[in-house]
Amino acid sequence: VFSLGVPVDALFFIGNQLVATSHTGKVGIWNAVTQHWQVQDVVPITSYDTAGSFLLLGCNNGSIYYIDMQKFPLRMKDNDLLVTELYHDPSNDAITALSVYLTPKT
């Protein structure tokens, strides 16, 4: 049984990993290989998109964060998901929409 502890706004797959997101700022990821849920607190989420193995999160603080789901990266010191800031809006405006397209490999 999985409980994110907050309402789930979106539930989708990236590869073989099930992802649950909440606007409150929580991300839950089920890794089918290890049979393990990883729950991570982030800044409140206002938009999201996926691109290949990447999960991109637009947040209310003006930042876009990403998680590379293919690597399912965990920080060694505390076993948290490795969430990386990709962009920060200088005026701190919320990122309310994301649309990502990766060109096919040639």
From TrEMBL:
InterPro entries in alphabetical order: SHKBP1/KCTD3, WD40/YVTN_repeat-like_dom_sf, WD40_repeat_dom_sf
Signal peptide: none
Keywords annotated in UniProt: Repeat
The UniProt record lists the keyword Amino-acid biosynthesis: no
Annotated protein name in UniProt: SHKB1 protein
Superkingdom field: Eukaryota
